[in-house]
Amino acid sequence: MAKIFLNKFKESALSILPVTIIVFILSFTPIARLETNEQFTFLICAFLLIIGMALFSFGVDFSMSTMGEKIGSSLIKTKKLWVILLVVFLMGLLITIAEPDLSVLADQIKEAFNGNTLILIVSVGLGVGIFLMLGVIKMLTKTNLSMLLMFFYAMLFAFTALLILKGNEAFLCVAFDSGGVTTGPITVPFIMALGVGIAATIGGRGQKENSFGLIALSSVGPILVVLLLGLSINSSKLNSSIITDRIDSYQISGNFFIHFLRSLLEESKGVLIALGLIIVLFLIIDFIFIKLPKVKLVKIGLGLLYTFIGLVLFLTAAKAGFLPIGFKLGTLVSSNKAALITFGFALGLVVVFAEPAVHILTKQVEEVTTGGVKKRTLLIALAIGVALSILLSMIRIIFNFSILYYLIPGYLISLGLAFLIPSIYTGIAFDSGGVASGPLTSSFVLPFAIGACYNLNPESLLNNGFGIVAMVALTPLITIQLLGFKSVIQNRMIIKKRMKLIVSSDDEQIINFM
Q1: For residue 341, is pLDDT > 90?
Q2: Secondary structure of 325-346 in the HEC alphabet?
Q3: pLDDT mean over 1-16
Q4: Burial of 371 (C-beta count, 10 Å sphere; 0-12/13-18/19+)
Q5: Helix residue spans in 203-293 (DSSP H)
Q6: Which DSSP state fits 459?
Q7: Which of 145, 257, 414, 470 could be a cystine partner for 477, CB 3.0 to 4.6 Å?
Q8: Cα 76 to Cα 79: distance, rounded to the nearest angstrom
Q9: pLDDT of residue 349
Q10: Each residue of 405-440: pLDDT tens digit?
Q11: Are 187 and 361 in contact (CB under 8 A)?
């Protein structure tokens, strides 16, 4: 086990060090010079991120993945559709309600709901629960994922049109961001494993393709729900409240260690509730359907302990150190627009490697496809996609235009590509979109964008400061499907070349069947 953890630690260090090095070098330049105590804070938090990510990845292998697969396979074996759908709905609802990333987003826009964050959290949880059920029905009936996505994204843009007609376009960014934050580090490994367990039990020729798509559909539900909520609020009031009330939360006030301990307690409480809900649900299902031996349960429990410690350390370090540093860097770098675009692109290239759920997904993809889609290739495609998303977001902050100029053509291209490639790439791409926008995006990239917007266009903070999570969730859909398109073209060229060789061959062979 020590060797496995050491490998996880090396992987985590290689993932997080590029972000740390780029930010640390930038902090010594005139463009974005940081104080010595801020540099020290950033380095401590970077080290804690490495440890936290290693412990999290180590624990997930022994707990969340096993739990998800066992639940998926055992539910299908009951052959009772109502039981399957009820459990899946409750699972989606409870896990989403407890997802730390969603709480962060809800806290930032709570003024729109008279300070009551529960309205947004429960609504988004219902959206995930309903669409997770639809995802399972899709798997049971082996319905084409591309057709479902086209139908639901058509609905999504219909609600978008209603929101614009109401004059509430500023709320669009929040709605699309909500689709990204709901698929966080707790939900992703569980839902991914659930899909693999269900697909393996169902079997059939399309088992690999059937393993993907649950995260993709689970990301659509929250967007639709929040768009509906947006029809009932006043976004101008929300915009002003964010400027006056939220900026203070991006500052390190007082002693760092006191600030860190306070964040540690808050994150511990949130993660404990989230994992507690999953554990209770799993134990109930295990008692009724699975009936695992005690040795296996103890192993899962130990894995959950590592997962808890790792995730708490990761989220605390991200919130206590990376969030305020990200905001300050955004305000400083944005003074030089060329540097803002360049740094945004460089940040996107490396930040995706530091997202815990990304490594869970890429490992799962490589295993399910038996090496057909390599982890390294998928990571490169994700990195390029995220880099482009942040670059485009910085351009939008500078020139102050609607996010729809990106979202409409972006989704049209991604849905159009689904007709040209194998369905497995579509499932992987849309799952990756939700996974790429994880806790580091919420606690470092988003504050960076808000800081840049606060410095350049503070009056459009809701329009342009938010929306970067939605962009991070969009561009991987295109880059990964282009990867699939490249694979299709290469295969066709190989076949064409082989056929040409056969036709042009001068060898003549006479076969006598008599």
Answers
A1: yes
A2: HHHHHHHHHCCCHHHHHHHHHH
A3: 82
A4: exposed
A5: 207-210, 214-230, 235-241, 256-285
A6: G
A7: 414
A8: 6
A9: 87
A10: 998 899 899 988 888 888 888 888 888 877 777 777
A11: no
Distance CA 287, CA 363 (A): 30
Identity (one letter) of the amino acid at 298?
V
Q: What angle do CA 410, 416, 420 make, to 5 degrees?
A: 135
How many angstroms separate the most distant Cα atoms in the chain? 96
- Residue 223 is predicted with a pLDDT of 87
**Rounded average pLDDT over 345-350:** 89
CB-based contacts of 30: which residues, under 8 Å, 6+ apart?
A: none
Give pTM, 2 decimals. 0.82
Side chain identity, residue 24 = F
Query: Alpha helix locations (H) across 400-467?
Result: 404-417, 423-436, 439-440, 446-456
Residue 172 confidence (pLDDT) above 90: no
Question: Reduced to 3 states, what is the DSSP secondary structure of residue 257?
Answer: helix
Contacts of 139 (CB under 8 A, 6+ apart): 195, 198, 199, 202, 210, 213, 214
Token code pair at residue 364: 């799962």
The kind and range of the H/E element at 194 are helix 187-202
Dist. CA 186–CA 168, nearest whole Å: 32
User: For 5-19, 150-164, 420-434, 453-467, which range has the lowest pLDDT when averaged over its residues?
Assistant: 453-467
Q: Are 15 and 56 in contact (CB under 8 A)?
A: no
Tell whether the model's pLDDT for residue 156 goes beyond 80: yes
Between CA 352 and CA 361 the distance in angstroms is 12
Q: Half-sphere exposure of 67 toward its Cβ, with a 13 Å CA cutoff? A: 32
Question: What are the two backbone dihedrals, phi and then psi, of residue 503, each rounded to the nearest 5 degrees?
Answer: -70, -40
DSSP 109: T
CA atoms of 215 and 213, how far apart (whole Å): 6
- The amino acid that residue 404 corresponds to is L
Cα–Cα separations (whole angstroms), residue 224 to 156, 213, 232, 395, 425: 6, 17, 14, 27, 24
CA distance 129 to 117: 18
φ/ψ of 359, rounded to 5, equals -70, -30
